[in-house]
Amino acid sequence: MENNKNKRKYSRRTFLEAGVNGSVGIAIGLVAGAVLNGENEEQPEMVRLLTADGKMVEVEKKHIPGTCGRPVAVSNQVLQAWMEEGKQ
């Protein structure tokens, strides 16, 4: 008598074809996602700044240093020298 429980429903070839087709589908999806995300990044984020002579300019955010606008620690000697320069 044959044992029906041990028979495969799908052949090995079918299993391998499904694996290859799935891999190709995933690869195509990843490439399509990368292309679509690349289109959104074409326009850089711009920031408006005021120059020292009073002109308004727009600059890409990636060109602004990370410390811009944040407090910077200064020694007392440097602060006093700066104050003296302002009095003259």
What is the topology?
Blueprint: H1 12-40, E1 46-50, E2 56-60, H2 76-87
Antiparallel strand pairs: 1-2
- The main sheet orders its strands as 1-2
Radius of gyration: 32 Å
* Total of DSSP H or I helical runs spanning 4+ residues: 2
What is the residue-mean pLDDT, rounded to a whole number?
81
Secondary-structure-based class equals mainly alpha
* Number of beta-strand segments: 2
Relative strand content: 5-15%
Low-confidence stretches: none
SSE succession: HEEH
Structure explained in plain terms:
The protein has 88 residues and is mainly alpha-helical. The protein has one domain. Helices cover 47% and strands 11% of the residues. It has two helices and two strands, in the order αββα. A two-stranded antiparallel ribbon has the order 1-2. A hairpin with a 5-residue loop joins strand 1 and strand 2. The longest helix has 29 residues. 0% of the residues are buried. The mean pLDDT is 81.
Give keywords.
two-stranded antiparallel ribbon; 2 helices
What's this entry about, in short?
The protein is built from 2 helices and 2 strands; from the N terminus they run αββα. The protein has 88 residues and is mainly alpha-helical. A two-stranded antiparallel sheet has the order 1-2.
